[in-house]
Amino acid sequence: LVVADTWQSGVHEYDSPTYYSVNLIDLLLIEEYCERESGREQARAMLELLWRDIAHNFYPPSLRLAGARSRDYNYLFGRGGIEGHFVFNGWMEGRMPGNIFLAITSWRPDEALLETSREQFPRYVRQSWGPAAMAARAHYLTEDVTLSCSGANYGPMDMPLTIDLPGEDRVRGYFIPDARRDPYGKKKIPAGPHEKTLHLRPFFAGVQSRADALALVVYRDSDLPPNPPTLESHFVLPRDVEAAWIGDRRVDLERETFVEPLQPGEAIVLRDGRAVIGLRVPWARGLDGERADAALISDGNDYGAMRLTVAHHSYWGIEGESSRPGASFWVRVAAGVADEAAVEAWRREFAEAGLSVDASEDAVRVEAAGVDEPLVLAAEAPFVRCTEAEPAHTSAVLEVDGDDIGRPLLADFEPVLAYQRRQEERQERLAEGAVYLEGETTYFEAESGLIEPQMEVGEDDAASGGQFVWVPGEPGARNSLPGSVTWRLDVPEAGEHYLWGRVNAPTQEDDSFFVRAYTEDAEVFPRTDWHTGTHESWEWTAFTLVRSDQPLPLSLPEGEVNLEISAREDGTKIDRLMLTPYMDSEPR
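User: That's the sequence. What structure does it adopt?
Assistant: Structure tokens below.
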């Protein structure tokens, strides 16, 4: 299943210096000790894929895995367990101890991979990390600087927009959404059995075209914790660069602390050796609906970091009603900029590069004139997906300079071949049970869809037709298990539809699903949490965002659309569903 899933949609915990180490150890043990040769062969193929991934994202000038990533326990410097593998395999000197599992296994990566990482500049790495269209990332690496952007938010510890400069102990450049006054990831809070430096999970979207990246973040009410002390969008930067400008004025970096406000449209430009980095804030909105202030700030920290900060609240703090605050960041990098004249020309070109913004309370569209092509991001309320994203993200498992070198490594294994056969059968079964959406309200049974493990049919006389669908679980025993049910919808006309479900959700640990909609070619509604609320008996409830009582619209295109409900917590039951084009329509 792991091989087939990776072949289909890439490595989900992408570029993580912590979780890549875990993955490598598990695969090494399988390759060394699995009794079945077929299992060892699959492990070797996965090891080959991961090490090619690592080699192309490894940045020798800073001796670290660089770029945007799924999870990071060391925001400022991007260090993690992967460095034990680097030390053991001779990629870096022993700043981290090796792992005992490396000593009892024999598979090793090809030595030529390190040389590829050292010599192949510039290179442009793109890869998918999930089935969604925006679940992908890009990474442009040069000898002097790297720029990387993910298409979507992964979780509360991800780094979706990053810069890396040469130097082993230098601060990384990274975006972080902050409601705890913790831009540097130093304040741990309880997270299950651990304490972690969690940040927010707002709506985030990003696109990249080699040396340009454009990102958009919007904070929905459900993204904010109760009574947050702040709401800020940071782009953290290394302070030990050679020079910095805001517009035409040079920033005095010798000062320990400073606050340098940005005027609307002004560019920050940093020079470091032969690298130049530019940042602009095309759009920034506060909680009050007005333009949010932005500034380059050095707060006297001990880490060697400064930050571009967009403050979404007033000087007096967070008060009153939210007006969908957010921001956009445009980042551009250049390598090989040799002298002051070249830096000056580059600064002016970036500051004058075309930029357009069209924003209202319910929609935002940003377009930036990249070096190679335009970059466009657009989204609208309730801000769960992009309505425009250009250039399009790759669906490749691992693509380097336009060639997918990842998927072919896994293509000939039986798990992948069996998966392809199952997909063909799945399409046939979905077509057999298609639900036609009439012009008015449409009802259909949960058990009429394509049910996949660990989801299964249950029996209850009180349920419609005597049956329901769930992942079995004891009330209150919160577990997250795989399982889904999917219906093929025949949509006669494109438009918005509202989803209701007749559910039984006995406790707060058994009251949620994920909802997703997709066609054969694209995702039309990304996987989104559906918190149903508790219902001790069968009751109808609308699909809404968390802490919202407004039904959330599904914008469905004309034609065949797959609607998927998957398990988020076991023990949550669904009996019947309703789709309606009317926001105020309720099930009868």
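The longest strand covers residues 495-505.
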